[in-house]
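Can't paste images in this forum, so I'm doing it all in text. The chain is below; anyone willing to post the predicted structure tokens underneath?
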Amino acid sequence: MRSRSVSDRVLTGRVEVPAPPPGLLADWRRDIELRLGLEPGDVECLSLPRARRRWPDYPLCLQAVADWTRSLGLQEVLANSDVALMACRGAKYHHDGAQYGGMAFCNLFLSEDRGLDLHFAVTGKRIPLTLGTVVVFDTGQPHAVIARQRSGFNAADFPPDQDCSQVFLSWELPIENAPLAQVLHISFDTDPAAALLLDQEQLLIQGEAAYVCPDSGRWCRVDRPIDEHRPDGGRAKN
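Text version of the structure:
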């Protein structure tokens, strides 16, 4: 295990990509409603292999994001990273550091503007989600998909009679890629003593394990909120 800091930087932009074809959008809606049964705040996988068979412009999406990441100095990091097709009906505040501590996410959003923002609780940064929105961020940073007029997650903002879903491609980018670590300002070996004691990835704040309040994005210990929002670099990764 190796310790590192958690970046609060978010790289964002918008790329020109064709809208997915109507038949594919209909497939996604059926899957979201019937197979996945997404509740407000849920994030789940869609079938990328099945989607690719009905998505002639899929290579254009890959090329657009690859060109954008190269423009950031990230070279060919995207080509060597795993990609998944995801769907959410909003998203409660969470971080993904416990499962993807060695990664950053690169997400390309494929749905039209539905009045939702990607919100990062630590910095307050909000990114309107529209077709072609692209972001890169540290998996350890708390984030959510919330209604644009809200300051937190509220399930009532995602009523069952309204299409509030977002579909996006998500790449897992290795944090140890030197250009990526540099552009996100990641520091390594920030707490080697703590890392030696761990047998699985954790995110620590002030030396203690913490969780994210799913409604507000606030860091909390089991017994109380934490005044300091920023992780202290004690999270270890493989």
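The first helix runs from residue 22 to 35. Residues 7 and 45 are 26 Å apart (CA to CA).
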